[in-house]
Structures are given as C-alpha cells and as structure tokens.
TrEMBL record:
Coiled coil location: none
Key words, A-Z: Acyltransferase, Transferase
Keyword set includes Transferase: yes
Protein name in the entry: GNAT family N-acetyltransferase
A Pfam short name: Acetyltransf_1
Organism: Pedobacter flavus
Amino acid sequence: MSIKENPSDIQIEQIPYYLSWQIRKIVFDPNPIDYKIDDDENGVHFGLYIGKNLIGVVSWFIEKDGAEFKKLGILNEFQGKGFGKMLLTHCIDYFKSQGIKTFRCESNKNSIGFYENLGFKKTNPTEAFHCYACIAMELSIKV
Ligand SMILES: CC(C)(COP(=O)(O)OP(=O)(O)OC[C@H]1O[C@@H](n2cnc3c(N)ncnc32)[C@H](O)[C@@H]1OP(=O)(O)O)[C@@H](O)C(=O)NCCC(=O)NCCS
C-alpha cells in the first residue's frame, strides 16, 4: 500500500465497530475470536485516516468509574511514526471533555513502554482479565 503522509490529510473520527475489524484482522489476528470483541456494539470506536485510508483503530468501553480501551492497532507500515500516540491522545482528550478521568488498558509486553510514554502506570496488582499475558495499566487525570 502506498499512502502519502501529509499532516493535512490526517483525520481522526468515530467509526462503526465493523470498520475497526478491517484493521484488527491485519494487526492482531484474522481469527474472529481475536478480531471481534463480544461487546463491540456497545463500544465507542475511533479510526485514524490518512486521506481515505483507515490505518489505525482503537475501541473504548465506558465504565462507571472511567473508560477502558482495547485493540489499539496501527498498520505495521505506519507504526513508529507517531500515529498511535496521536490516536490515543485524541481519544483521551475527547473523553476528558466528557468528564472521564481514569483510562485503562491491558498492555501486551511489547507495548508497555508506549503506554508509559503517555503517562500510564502499571496498576497494583497488574493482573489483566481480558488479555492473556498482559499487564493492566491506568492513566488518572488529576483535577
Ligand atoms: C503499540 C502501537 C499502537 C504504538 O503505536 P505507534 O504508532 O507504533 O507508536 P508511536 O509512533 O505513536 O509512538 C509514540 C511514542 O511512544 C514510543 N514508543 C512506541 N512504542 C514503544 C515501545 N514498545 N516501547 C517504548 N516506547 C515506545 C515512541 O518512541 C514514541 O516516543 P516519542 O513520542 O517520545 O517520540 C503500535 O505499534 C501497534 O499497533 N502495535 C501492534 C498492535 C499492538 O500491540 N497494540 C497494543 C495492544 S496492547
């Protein structure tokens, strides 16, 4: 795939859950057990577009005391260029504007540094409930 990266071409918007599947299938696994989330229909899904091309997604689930995101994924060829941080920061700013102050995720071992870079900390205990061999992480916004 060849996509010219031009900052004015980059857009982040809410997308229907089934569009997130097209990225999850590539970044995670083409097996529906892996690319679908049981609760997808109740999530809030964001996509990052370069021009008309969807290159990254993340899915949010609102809880009583915060919001959890799952399946943050950027297509391989666009990783390491700031798009993951841009997408996540955009969502956190959006949910902050809705009054949400606590953001959670379950990180795989490779992504812990990415989340720490954004201010997330490992929770204590670090046990993750939805993701095998993952570490629970949290970002709390102080008022
Ligand atoms: C994890 C992922 C979403 C990160 O997105 P990305 O676009 O590659 O990351 P970015 O380029 O936005 O990185 C932002 C910052 O985090 C740092 N960073 C990225 N990955 C890192 C890592 N694994 N460890 C430490 N720091 C990392 C970058 O150096 C950058 O630092 P800077 O802002 O100081 O320059 C992406 O690599 C991905 O989709 N991976 C495969 C799917 C996956 O594992 N998802 C996470 C599920 S828990």
